[in-house]
Amino acid sequence: MANPPLFDPNAPQTQDMVSAGLNLIQQALTIYDRDLRLAVCNRRFQEMFELPDALVTPGADFADTIRYLAERGDYGDVGEVEAFVQSRVEVARAFEPHYMERSRAGGRTISVEGSPLPQGGWVTVYTDITRTKQQEALLRARSEELSDKVLGYSEDLSSANRQLEATITALEEAKRQLTLSEARTRLTTEMMPAHIAHVGADRRYTYSNRRLSSVMPGSQSDIVGMAIDRALGEQAYGAIRERLDAAFDRVPSVFEFTHEASSRRIRVAFTPDGQAGGVYILSMDITEEAQTRAALQQTRRREMAAQLTSGLAHDFSNLLTIILGMQSRLQKMDLGADAEELISATLAAARRGGGLLNRIADMTGKREHSPVPVALSAFLQDIETLGRSALPDAVSLQVANDLGEATLLLDPGMLQDSLLNLLLNARDAVGGRGAITLTAREVQGIWVEFTVTDTGPGFSEQALARAFEPFFTTKGGEGSGLGLGMVYDMTKLAGGRVHLVNRAEGGATATLRLPLRRADVAPSPGLVLLVEDSPELRDTVRDMLREAGHSVIEATSVAEATALLSELPEIAAVLSDISLEGDATGLDLLDELRARGTPTCLMTSLPADDPLHQAAARRVPVLRKPFSADALNIHLFAGAPT
Q: What residues does 258 pair with on adjacent strands?
């Protein structure tokens, strides 16, 4: 626990000590504020002028005190009292240093010294100089050796000395206040998260706070007297020189540039100094602001893309599902090698089209984890092909697969995005020459682990601590800071982990772990209720189900489906479109199916951020069209409605 402060200016005991100290002074003392209200006085003031308590209480009006003394006769015959009071108030409001001596009605002589305060008001000291005056009179009477002129000079000198002392006191107080003001100004500029400086006509710093090195890392802090080109360095000075020249020609400007040495985005404001011919400079690090602007621009682009594609994606998804089904039928016919090649190409193109639609939807809405059976070997071959195309010739890529021909339940879109992101980060790390390795292996029968290593310089401590924060980047204006954040989010959505570490032998390692789920056990065939109002889609999906060994019964609406469910308790699973004929949707079936505990899957072309899609995904597995027969078989028996 911290010790209490030894001095608290607001504590009652402190105020008592101050009052006691003032009361020990032999002179009378008053301080009036800028509104001519009494702030403080000592007891000697009340005693010297025999004032009532009301006029020595803080807040007492200066005019009331003058009026009281005038009416009592302290100033002699003043004529009209109110006019006299007003004249004294006007003199007081001038707040000028002054010294005077006046005789009171009782024969006492008082000297009055007044000094204005910087914040308004003044402090006045009253001294009873009656005895001094008496001694001067006695000296005048007894000193025959001194001429009247010398004696007058002596008196004038004494008066001048007293006035000089009052002036010196006022100057010292003004100097103290000015020093205090300068200290406060410097402290304020040091606390601001910006570099504040002034450059003279000779382009040397005449003032600077010590923030240049924090705004532009690698720069010096103590730069007063240094030429600006030397303080900033060749690149930074070259970026601002044109605007600085304009500022010396009295043209103010605000602009941004990238500080290459630290990859930071800097905003600079130049304000011409019309008096001294120099320039005032304000520089701020706006790297995070620039990254946020870029992210907001990307968000606006995604919103526009969502508006343009949401309607088209729904219709194209249905068409691609039909194309996939028809091409699957043609593939089973003996049409010859040439036809087989064309069918395979058509199927591949349709699947790529479906993947493209899903990627567009992912770009414009919230992503969902949708695992499907993935042949790991073929998947990694695709990653290798895509990765090599983005690498320079002097950067090698090696892919190792320790799981062989395993088929795993993975979200290929999310995983591909994540691994390509890690590969591209590794490419940037090694520069134009180096080696990158991608390895897939099984860990303790629980995880499938993907590791990307590189021979670059490794992560900085700051990057290791903040790499997964949105908008954090070490690439300055070239990076959005969203890549590793997206990898983290997608991996967490799949129930996995991401870890970054520097290798002892040099370079960095990014490790991505996902739950290991094998997809080599097919569900048992059963009777499936297919609910779809599009005849073409219904035919295609029916063939997929039958090829998997299932029996199929069909309905086109929620009403038909409900009737069949009540008549056929042997229905083993239900596959329904979300959007159906009439007002009811596939979601309206879920309450009935929840009571039965029947495995259910909904299919849709709606984007992932559609309210119906989101409501369905919270209760049952959802298949996004177009989908393959393998994906259908995995999702169909994945769970009952909740």
A: 265
